[in-house]
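User: Let's play a game. I give you a shape written as tokens, and you guess the letters that built it. Ready? Here's round one.
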């Protein structure tokens, strides 16, 4: 409250002066408009009607100057405009050396469309000096750049784009100035005096000079708002502000200025070093949008994307299901940009097809349109990618897969001669029967089945079948595996195998072979079965199985007992065999073996010496 009262006298005086100026201007400009509109009704603009959705398109300095005759209309720039010759001596805008005559009381809409006005020059006495004098009552100015301005006003309210910006519904967005702006008081690189209005996503690199209330972006801010904006031009009065010279209840959210532009920090805006101002993270920390609004290159200040990068093309309709033979138009918000496109999936270049508005793309098959916009002086746009699917008959539902008759193949069943199929991204192949046998395939491959096109109908949508391992004919069983005695007693050796095989003993889990061509010392018994096959992969099933039967001949025998001894038997003419067990058997002179069932000895064996 105290601050408001202290400022009250100063602001009140200037508010009265502003009101008086507005009264004078409205009176004089009203007369000017009254006569000029009749005189310039035949002036005409190249395109447009001056209304929302169909603005006047401005392409020349003369058309830009004609805004003053229709200040409530809607406008859009159609290209960059250089005012140098228009404002030169002998030019229509020279005005005896005062150069550009500020456009008064603009209440319309001006969309710069990403184009630049260069060479603006003003050298006038009086107040409200800038390209616009004082946009008001809902005026909206956006997407316009003013480069190399040279604006001098020997008075108050001097700005590169506008002398004053008033009214709560008045706004400047996505715009900037460079060059030099100077005056007496209330001088800003973009706007001299801001009241109740808004400035968003804008900046000024202009050098600004004057006696008081001098700011890099805005000279004096009176209840206005600034957001996501910055200034980095030199301020010649070191006692003023890098972003805002002075402020009465104004706001400046997420907005910056370069410390090098001014020796003093007045606290209005965030002061950063040049290095920080040229570092993306500085602005990201304040929520700046570097996807849709801003762009930064290394060691440069932020730039507005619309001026730096050609706008990504847009297609109409924007992809999806579409009737066969439909047309698609492509456009870019960057007027005059060349658009190159492809329909085969390739990335577009200048060697691709150049889009002509008179020749829209005809959709006669499923395809993806990729397009890029190029404009001299701008970075190429990002690539647009829109996919289209022809509206077709419903897909078949009868197709199915089963193992083929040849290893590594599948058979497609449930089809007819009216259908066609393809594997993955291959070409469609006509089907001549109710099945297609022995299609070479891997697990995970996709087979597409559809009704083929006829003279009366497009091909239908496709039924998609994904091949699994169970749908693929396994490879034949190995034939190289064999058994022999192992190294250790009671074991066998498996030979003729490789590391792509695996084996199972009597139907237990398969074990991978990792020991080369043999597996030794397999604990087996006669009658066991050993199964050998080529192991499954991600793409192919395990092969059929080679079965090996274990016989006594392939089992390594145990070593001979060493505990056995002979002694005289109990009866005459006999011997006693000791150190044996019930697991042993004996033979006399090679006769049949007799199982030992008498414990640790066999007594009374009839023998002869030798």
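Assistant: Ready! My guess for every position:
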């Amino acid at each position: 409250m105290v601050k408001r009262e202290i400022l009250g006298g100063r602001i009140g005086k200037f508010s009265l002066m502003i009101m008086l100026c507005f009264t004078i201007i409205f009176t004089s400009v009203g007369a000017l408009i009254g006569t000029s509109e009749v005189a310039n009704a035949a002036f005409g603009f190249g395109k447009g009607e001056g209304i929302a959705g169909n603005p006047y398109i401005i392409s020349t300095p003369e058309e830009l100057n004609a805004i003053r005759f229709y200040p409530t209309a809607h406008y859009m720039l159609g290209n960059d405009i250089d005012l140098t010759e228009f404002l030169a001596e002998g030019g229509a805008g020279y005005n005896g050396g005062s150069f550009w005559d500020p456009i008064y009381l603009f209440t319309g809409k001006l969309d710069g469309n990403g184009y630049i006005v260069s060479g603006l020059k003003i050298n006038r006495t009086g107040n409200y000096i800038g390209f616009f004098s004082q946009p008001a009552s809902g005026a909206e100015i956006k997407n316009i750049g003013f480069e190399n301005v040279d604006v001098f006003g020997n008075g108050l309210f001097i700005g590169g784009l506008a002398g004053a910006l008033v009214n709560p519904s008045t706004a400047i967005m996505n715009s900037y100035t460079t060059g030099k702006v100077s005056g007496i008081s209330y001088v800003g690189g973009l706007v001299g005096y801001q009241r109740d209005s808004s400035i968003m996503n804008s900046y000024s690199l202009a050098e600004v000079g004057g006696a008081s209330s001098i700011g890099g972006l805005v000279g004096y801010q009176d209840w206005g708002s600034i957001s996501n904006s910055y200034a980095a031009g030199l301020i010649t009065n070191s006692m003023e502000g890098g972003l805002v010279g002075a402020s009465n209840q104004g706001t400046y959210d997420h907005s910056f200025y370069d410390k090098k532009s001014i020796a003093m920090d007045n606290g209005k805006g965030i002061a950063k070093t040049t290095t920080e101002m040229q570092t993306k993270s500085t602005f990201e920390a304040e929520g700046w949008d570097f996807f849709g609004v801003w762009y930064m290159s290394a060691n440069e200040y932020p730039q507005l994307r619309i001026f730096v990068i050609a706008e990504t093309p847009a297609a109409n309709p924007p992809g999806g299901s579409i009737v066969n033979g439909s047309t698609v138009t492509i456009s870019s918000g960057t007027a005059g940009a060349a658009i190159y496109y492809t329909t085969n999936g390739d990335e577009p270049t200048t060697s691709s097809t150049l889009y002509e508005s008179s020749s829209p793309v005809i959709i006669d098959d499923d395809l993806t349109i990729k397009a890029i916009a190029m404009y001299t002086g701008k970075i190429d746009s990002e690539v647009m990618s829109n996919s289209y699917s022809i509206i077709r008959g419903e897909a078949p539902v009868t197709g199915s897969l089963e193992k083929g008759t040849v290893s590594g193949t599948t058979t497609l069943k449930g089809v007819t001669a009216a259908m066609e199929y393809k594997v993955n991204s291959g070409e469609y192949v006509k089907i001549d029967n109710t099945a297609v046998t022995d299609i070479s395939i891997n697990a995970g491959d996709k087979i597409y089945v559809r009704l083929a096109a006829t003279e009366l109908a497009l091909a239908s949508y496709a039924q998609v079948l994904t091949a699994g391992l169970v749908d693929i004919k396994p490879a034949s069983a190995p034939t190289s595996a064999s058994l022999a005695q192992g190294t250790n007693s009671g074991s066998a050796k498996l030979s003729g195998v490789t590391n792509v095989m695996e084996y199972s003993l009597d139907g237990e889990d398969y074990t991978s072979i990792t020991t080369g061509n043999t597996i030794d010392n397999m604990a087996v018994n006669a009658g066991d079965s050993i199964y050998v096959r080529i192991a499954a992969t991600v793409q192919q099933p395990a092969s059929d199985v080679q079965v090996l039967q274990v016989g006594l001949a392939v089992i390594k025998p145990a070593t001979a007992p060493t505990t056995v001894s002979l002694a005289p038997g109990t009866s005459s003419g006999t011997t006693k065999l000791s150190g044996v067990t019930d697991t042993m058997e004996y033979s006399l002179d090679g006769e049949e073996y007799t199982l030992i069932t008498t414990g640790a000895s066999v007594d009374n064996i009839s023998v002869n010496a030798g």
